[in-house]
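Customer escalation, tier 2.

The customer says the design service returned an amino acid string that "doesn't look like it belongs to this structure." They asked us to rerun it and document both sides in this ticket. The original structure tokens are below, unchanged.
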């Protein structure tokens, strides 16, 4: 994740944060100058002295564009400004008056190295008009690279949805002031390219979502032993391979002892303890600090019994895969310890149905609603992963490599999250740590990696946090 603010703000939160700066004595013009100059640095890194075209809209995002253009011009860059329309705010008009170059109309022809989109930034709720859409697409196609300032034009900031079909793809998006939800939500995030951040002094906002960043993980104490580092019980089922994969991943993510409860030990690694006794007996071990249930569990009557037994344990439970299809309000009745659910989209729909939720809104809204209704910490995983807690905490994961879209990586993630939960930290933090380690391990793998290769990269990812 690029360095910058850890908070992720909605449109309303960002407006309130900017207003707080203004109320404290900072002018809109000063904020615009700070944002524009900072963004210009990223444009310069890509363009240098090559030709840059800046498209300015009527609002303050357009004002940022005029500041960017003047900063590049003063530095010796080749810059051309195209105004989609006249500035419509005092700050934008001031920024245009300070730009010392020519400003051309929307019909002007332009081509070059870098196109900078300052037509509309965050806060959009309506689709671009056909003229504006055609203008953005024409200029993007006429340049080698494209940069969006704050957000690409035509994106719903809070939902991460394109408001038009056929919008351009960008090489770089420069967030201003704070990250926005759309920077992390698909499908919009897929078209934003690399993400960079420019601060303007925004203060922390209570209740804001946070980005998932590299965790600080301490090495075991000098006098540690396997139980002190955490005992993770993994409940196997009808398909033993998935549970073994999750268990192997958990062994590499911090827990001191991983024990798989399965009907047989065939095919298990030599260093994985497999207990074939009665599940109702072995899960009464009060040394368990976390339980993982779901990978390879199955969906029949026996699977339901094993899920119920796992949820009866007083430790934190991580529910994944088949367990999520079987889970419902009755399953969690009377449970006091934390439960972490890790659904992909299909499993999220099943959980929403089980908890009588409409399943509407953005992924953030859906995960938050499920967390409130169920009392679980919800890891809504996928190319955009969101973590939501019943107390309202939210976290957004940076985009990970798309090579993770292969069989078995979800089992690995469940094992890593469960391992972090077994070490005894806050369950919400454990979920975030597991997500980061999973993505970092994937980053260290070659293209086309398998789930086993992902597991092998976990120790190096863990070492990066020490």
């Amino acid at each position: 994740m690029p360095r910058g603010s850890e908070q992720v703000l909605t449109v309303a939160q960002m407006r309130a944060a900017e207003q707080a700066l203004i109320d404290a004595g900072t002018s809109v013009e000063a904020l615009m100058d700070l944002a524009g100059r900072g963004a210009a640095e990223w444009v310069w890194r890509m363009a240098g002295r090559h030709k840059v075209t800046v498209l300015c809209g009527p609002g303050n995002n357009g004002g940022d564009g005029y500041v960017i253009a003047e900063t590049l011009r003063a530095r010796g860059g080749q810059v051309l400004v195209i105004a989609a329309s006249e500035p419509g705010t005092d700050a934008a008009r001031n920024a245009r008056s300070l730009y010392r170059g020519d400003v051309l109309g929307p019909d002007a022809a332009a081509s070059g190295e870098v196109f900078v989109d300052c037509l509309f930034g965050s806060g959009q709720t309506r689709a671009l008009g056909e003229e504006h859409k055609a203008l953005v697409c024409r200029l993007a196609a006429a340049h080698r690279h494209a940069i969006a300032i704050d957000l690409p034009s035509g994106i719903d900031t809070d939902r991460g949805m394109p408001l038009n079909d056929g919008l351009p793809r960008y090489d770089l998006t420069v967030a201003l002031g704070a990250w926005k939800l759309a920077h992390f939500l698909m499908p919009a995030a897929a078209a934003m390219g690399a993400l960079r951040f420019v601060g303007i002094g925004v203060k922390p906002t209570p209740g804001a979502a946070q980005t998932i960043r590299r965790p600080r993980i301490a090495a075991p104490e000098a006098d540690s032993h396997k139980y002190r580092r955490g005992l993770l019980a993994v409940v196997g089922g009808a398909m033993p391979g998935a549970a073994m994969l999750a268990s192997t991943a958990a062994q590499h993510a911090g827990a001191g002892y991983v024990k798989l409860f399965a009907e047989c030990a065939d095919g298990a690694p030599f260093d994985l303890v497999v207990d074939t006794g009665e599940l109702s007996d072995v899960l009464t071990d009060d040394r368990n600090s976390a339980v993982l249930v779901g990978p390879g569990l199955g969906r029949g009557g026996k699977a339901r019994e094993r899920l119920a037994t796992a949820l009866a344990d007083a430790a934190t439970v991580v529910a994944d895969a088949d367990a999520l299809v079987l889970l419902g309000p009755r399953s969690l009745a009377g449970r006091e310890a934390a439960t972490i659910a890790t659904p992909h989209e299909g499993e999220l729909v099943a959980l929403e149905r089980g908890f009588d939720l409409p399943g509407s809104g953005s992924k953030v809204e859906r995960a938050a609603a499920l967390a409130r209704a169920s009392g679980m910490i919800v890891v809504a995983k996928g190319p955009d992963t969101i973590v939501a807690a019943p107390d309202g905490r939210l976290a957004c994961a940076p985009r990970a490599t798309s090579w993770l879209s292969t069989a078995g990586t979800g089992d690995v993630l469940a094992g890593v999250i469960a391992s972090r939960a077994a070490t005894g930290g806050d369950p919400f933090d454990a979920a975030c740590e597991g997500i980061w380690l999973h993505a970092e391990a994937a980053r260290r793998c070659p293209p086309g990696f398998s789930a086993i290769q992902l597991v092998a990269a976990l120790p190096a990812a863990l070492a990066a946090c020490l």
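Tier 2 assessment: The sequence is consistent with the input. The chain has two domains: 7-211, 226-463. The longest helix spans residues 28-47. Sent an explanation to the customer and offered a walkthrough call.
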